[in-house]
Request: fold
Amino acid sequence: MTNTAALWYFESVNLFRILCPTKIKKLAETHVLIAFKRDELINMPVAAIPQIYLIVNGRVKIGRQSANVDEVASVILTQGEIFGQLAGAGGESRGDFAQAVDSVTICPVTTEQLKGLMYDNKELSFKILKLIGLRIVKLERKLELLVFKNARTRVIEFLKDTAVGKGVRFGQETMIPTKLTHKDISSLTGTSRLGVTTILNDLKEKNLINFNRKQILIRDVDSLE
Reply:
């Protein structure tokens, strides 16, 4: 995987309806969506006009290739979530990458278009600022888990955070619609794949969770430990 500029992203949001130029009459006719095949790298050359990218459908993995060639995933983004480059942020280029997990369509939006939308819509401006604040909090939390918590705690906290951000409540239970593999969870939590499998199976045996290839069901998020 080739080096690129540092990548940023917003998860657990859906800004597609208000940011995609196809939703704006004067921009719709000239705007083009971009499709990528499964496992294809999403190349984002540092252009004269920087862009952000909204996910129309499919999933995108944001990660980094470490010095020993191991892949470390930061997040797997889904429909409506956004990502982009920190072009011109200074410093050395890093091994960050964005990759299509399955067939993906993305919507490019220039920073100038985003500025125009934010200028005309104060509510959108406040929402973007709030997302930046939440992003910082999540980064701090993830760092704390990696440094101070054991593998079991990291996996459980990942399940809880995902339940809060993307889960659907059914009474006391929470269903997380996900196609995440044990390998994905391993990469996202800094845990071995065998460790993830052992922890999930233990939680299942204790009837704290249930899971298959399409979803994870948490019996009670508050009692998950």
Q: What stands out?
A: The chain has a mean pLDDT of 81. The chain has seven helices and twelve strands. Helices lie at 16-19, 25-28, 111-120, 122-148, 151-166, 182-189, 193-205. The radius of gyration is 18 Å.
